[in-house]
Amino acid sequence: MKVFGVTGWKNAGKTGLMERLVSDITGRGFTVSTLKHAHHNFDVDQPGRDSYRHRAAGAQQVLLSSGKRWALMTELRETAEPSLDALLAQMAPVDLILIEGWKREAHPKIEAWRAAAEHPLIAPNDPTILAVASDVAVDTDRVRFDLDDTVAIADFVLGQVGLV
Questions:
Q1: Exposed site from 2, 127, 129, 153, fewest CB < 10 Å?
Q2: What does pTM read for this prediction?
Q3: Mean pLDDT throughout 91-111?
Q4: Cα separations (Å) of 117 from 13, 26, 114?
Q5: CATH architecture of the domain formed by 2-42+80-160
Q6: How far apart are the C-alpha atoms of 32 and 95, rounded to whole Å?
Q7: 10-13 — which CB contacts under 8 Å span 24+ positions?
């Protein structure tokens, strides 16, 4: 499967860029899935719900299904977080998987960067970052996009993964 990442520090605009890229690229007729890395404890389930109760009782996996969607939750139960490759192997085939986060992994990426976040650019020390999307001009040797120029960024991503 073809993968491309959006990386950057907190409040850099990653999620907004991901959302716009998914909308643009699926609007062109491609199928897209996403992987999002969270650095904190999260729960997609709610206490008291049947699926939550199954997990709390010790189930390793709980699959929740309806006529609209299904979700598979897997409890790590003190085992290590799976690698990005292992998680990608769990994904159904699509034209493109967009990855948010995983800044230290070796897949090709674009860095989202906002001046207001006051973080240094990651790109100078990471050759897997092929471009920077920012809200101001930045000093970089990478391709640079305006953070809001979704069409140009989508064109770049699709070109990089060979879908155009």
A1: 127
A2: 0.91
A3: 96
A4: 9, 29, 6
A5: 3-Layer(aba) Sandwich (3.40)
A6: 6
A7: 10/117, 10/119, 11/114, 11/116, 11/117, 12/111, 12/112, 12/113, 12/114, 12/117, 12/119, 13/112, 13/113, 13/114, 13/133, 13/135, 13/147
- Residues 161, 4 contacting (CB under 8 angstroms): yes
Residues in the chain: 164
In whole angstroms, what is the distance from residue 45 CA to residue 28 CA?
33
pLDDT digits (tens, 9 = 90+) for 34-80: 999 987 777 778 888 898 899 889 899 899 999 999 999 898 988 99
**What are the residues whose beta carbons fall under 8 Å from the beta carbon of 22, sequence distance 6 or more?**
32, 34, 98
Confidence of residue 23 (pLDDT cuts 50, 70, 90): very high
For residue 65, which amino acid is it?
S
Residue 36 CB partners (closer than 8 Å, separation 6+): 15, 18, 100, 101
pLDDT of residue 14 exceeding 90, the answer is: yes
Which pLDDT tens digit goes with each residue over 124-162? 999 999 999 999 999 999 999 999 999 999 999 999 999
